[in-house]
Amino acid sequence: MPLITEMFAFVVEESPGEEGIPAVHTERGWMPLVGADMTRVDSIRGHAQRVADESGLDVRLVRFSVIEEVEIIKPRRN
Prior knowledge:
By secondary structure, this protein is of the alpha+beta class.
């Protein structure tokens, strides 16, 4: 698996100044509409369209490309 250098997210603005990443329920559970490459984005685009259709809200595709490592969570040793 290649290193992640950018992230894409479908974003909904529910009210002025308040936005979030929608999630859809799939056979594997809840899935946020995010991806690390356009292949993944294209595979979830239909879900984003459904969110727009059902909510009546615009769904924007945004790209994050600045990487800042905030924390490393290490496995616990028993």
